[in-house]
Amino acid sequence: MASELAEKRVVHTDRAVTSPAPQHEAGEALVYADPRPSWPVTGIFFILFFGALYLAASFVLPVVIALLFALVLSPVVRFFRRRLKIWEPITAGLLVIGAMLTLVFGFYMLSDPITQIVNDAPRYVEAVDKEIRTVRDKITRLEGARHTAAQAVSEGEPPPGGGAEAAQGQGQNGENPQEVVIGNADLFSNATTVVPQVIASVGFALVFLFFLLASGDLFYQKLVRAMPTLSDKKRALHIAHDIERELSRYLFTITIINMGLGVAIGTSMWLCGLPTPIIFGALATLLNYIPYLGAVVGMSIVGVISLTLFGSLGDALVPVAFYLACTTMEGQFVTPAVVGRRLEMNAAAIFLAVAFWGWIWGVVGMFLAVPLMVAVKVFATYTQPLGAFGDFISVEKPRDEED
Q1: % of the chain with per-residue pLDDT over 70
Q2: If DSSP codes are grouped into helix, strand and coil, which group holds residue 317?
Q3: Residue 336 — φ and ψ, nearest 5°?
Q4: What is the C-alpha R_g of the chain?
């Protein structure tokens, strides 16, 4: 009897495929595997991947920071090598030393104002606690008056005139406000533990950055060799160069914008009569790297310090209003006009990215959220499976551009 093709039904997770399988031997048939990715395996991979990023944050964070700065500074190293014939390690060493001196100088200039703010922290906490107690007493008096009126109506009697006074006396003679105590010993002990770790992480990131910059185009050469086909080599180089260019453009422009915002906010705080306006300017410059949440944190800090100094909630809202006006002008007009629509991203996606990376890596993750999104957006434009994700994080195009 002549050999026949045997059909074997291969059942997958979402559909069934009937494929003919030729016999190799009597009673044996080949089973063709589905080349599509398995979603459960992909989900498990991402869970393990982000779990590893969370657990190894102390090691991964300096590496990611060094890689981002290497992408930003690589064009500078390449320019000096091609135009001025300067050896890459020399340029890399000068850049790393310049970054280290900038950090040391900034810490030295801001150390005294920061120390003053830390020493005045009990006053800030006491002012906030006093305002909270005032609001709580007003709510207590309102609740007492409402309860007295409801009781009088239920009994058919007119409400006594002393209901508000009794509620006020109850609010004053009730629970005593808790005393606010600042644990300075615990604060300084935590600082002595955290500061060496931060210094070690910064030092590791700077050393790794030096090796990345000193290697020149070695990374691109290795990337080209690793790709199997010529089209893959070209696509890999396009992705690497576009990420480098877009990330450099974004970080450079956003740094200039944030510095201008810091000058504007520092000047506004000086006009409002707040002490050490340079601290508020530097704080606004750093916090503006965190979209949305950075402005909220900055306004909260300004509001607390203003409430301590002025003692009135109305007067404390004036510096907050100046801060809000400066950040609104920057976010709605300056940044879109300078950065352009090419790097504009969906506001909801940016907020989710800031919250997610803040959950994974804390405050440093919030600073890295937008640069990581820029790199992912560029990579998604060249990768077909990530096209939907790239379209999600991008801003919606007007209809005339789509046509």
Answers
A1: 76
A2: helix
A3: -60, -35
A4: 30
| Residue given tokens 């100094």 in the structure block | 309
For residue 162, what pLDDT is reported?
A: 47
pLDDT digits (tens, 9 = 90+) for 281-320: 998 999 999 888 889 999 988 988 888 888 777 888 899 9
DSSP string, 146-174: HHHHHHHHHHTSPPPTTHHHHHHHHHHHS
In degrees and rounded to multiples of 5, residue 19 shows phi and psi of -125, 135
Decide: 218 and 78 in contact? Cβ < 8 Å: no
Please check whether residue 308 is in contact with residue 124, taking contact to mean a CB–CB distance below 8 angstroms.
yes
Read off the pLDDT of residues 342-375 as tens digits, 9 standing for 90 and up: 566 777 888 888 889 989 988 888 899 888 888 8
The answer to whether 223 and 240 have CB atoms below 8 angstroms apart is: yes
CA atoms of 130 and 299, how far apart (whole Å): 19
Retrieve residue 240's tokens.
């690497």
Distances (CA, A) of 285 to 73, 212, 324, 367: 21, 27, 14, 12
Could you tell me if 266 and 280 are in contact, meaning their C-beta atoms sit under 8 angstroms apart? yes
Give kind and range of the element (H or E) at residue 11. Answer: strand 6-11
93/71 Cα distance (integer angstroms) = 16
Residues 313, 317: Cα–Cα separation, whole Å: 6
Buried b (16+ CB within 10 A) or exposed e, 167-199: bbeebeeeeeeeeeeeeeeeeeeeeeeeeeeee
Q: Quick one: pLDDT band at residue 258, thresholds 50, 70, 90?
A: very high
Residues in Cβ contact with 227 at an 8 Å cutoff, skipping those fewer than 6 apart? 233, 235, 236
**Residue 84 φ/ψ, nearest 5 degrees:** -110, 0
The DSSP-derived string for 238-272 is HHHHHHHHHHHHHHHHHHHHHHHHHHHHHHHHHHT
Sign of CA dihedral 43, 49, 55, 61: negative
Which residue's structure tokens are 């991979």?
45
Helices (H) and strands (E) in the chain, counts: 15, 2
Read off the amino acid at residue 121.
A
